[in-house]
């Protein structure tokens, strides 16, 4: 009888261990599939991000930024990639457009975009949804929205244009 109890004990322990290992691997598989779902899911024409004076420069765009822009497009239904006004900027082009000397648009950083918007309502929707997706730096212009993923600068900030002006809306307050 005692020998049967030992066998039952070992079978129970073995079953528990195999179940735990199975649960662990299912958990890892689900976690991995969620990560891959957050990757860019379609081919993006990076030329929309090119600095006008440097063809091909859009290739430097931050992949996390691109993924977040794709999420913004999917969540809002707006053609975000068709509305890109500015992505990568050469030093010369950044000066020409009056960009900040430490602009996150500049090559090789390439962590910022300006998105043209057709209306104030759409601009406001993009600003709030961008915050919900995880953008922590948002510039709010009258006819565009600046989004960047530059973690070397202040986070959870919004600003208006011209530079230094308070934004019309601030999703962080």
TrEMBL record:
<protein>
    <submittedName>
        <fullName>Peptidase M15A</fullName>
    </submittedName>
</protein>
<dbReference type="Pfam" id="PF08291">
    <property type="entry name" value="Peptidase_M15_3"/>
</dbReference>
<keyword id="KW-0812">Transmembrane</keyword>
<keyword id="KW-0472">Membrane</keyword>
<feature type="transmembrane region" description="Helical">
    <location>
        <begin position="6"/>
        <end position="27"/>
    </location>
</feature>
<feature type="domain" description="Peptidase M15A C-terminal">
    <location>
        <begin position="63"/>
        <end position="148"/>
    </location>
</feature>
<dbReference type="InterPro" id="IPR013230">
    <property type="entry name" value="Peptidase_M15A_C"/>
</dbReference>
<dbReference type="InterPro" id="IPR009045">
    <property type="entry name" value="Zn_M74/Hedgehog-like"/>
</dbReference>
<keyword id="KW-1133">Transmembrane helix</keyword>
């Amino acid at each position: 009888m005692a020998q049967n109890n030992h066998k039952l004990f070992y079978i129970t322990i073995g079953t528990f261990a195999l179940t735990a290992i199975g649960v662990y691997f299912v958990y890892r598989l689900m976690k991995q599939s969620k990560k891959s779902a957050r990757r860019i899911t379609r081919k993006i024409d990076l030329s929309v991000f090119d600095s006008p004076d440097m063809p091909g420069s859009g290739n430097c765009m931050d992949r996390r930024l691109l993924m977040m822009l794709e999420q913004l497009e999917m969540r809002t239904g707006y053609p975000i990639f068709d509305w890109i006004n500015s992505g990568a900027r050469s030093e010369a082009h950044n000066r020409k457009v009056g960009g900040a000397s430490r602009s996150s648009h500049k090559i090789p950083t390439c962590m910022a975009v300006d998105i043209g918007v057709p209306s104030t309502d759409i601009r406001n929707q993009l600003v709030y949804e961008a915050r919900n997706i995880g953008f922590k730096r948002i510039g709010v212009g009258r006819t565009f929205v600046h989004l960047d993923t530059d973690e070397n600068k202040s986070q959870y900030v919004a600003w208006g244009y011209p530079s230094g002006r308070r934004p019309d809306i601030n999703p962080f307050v």
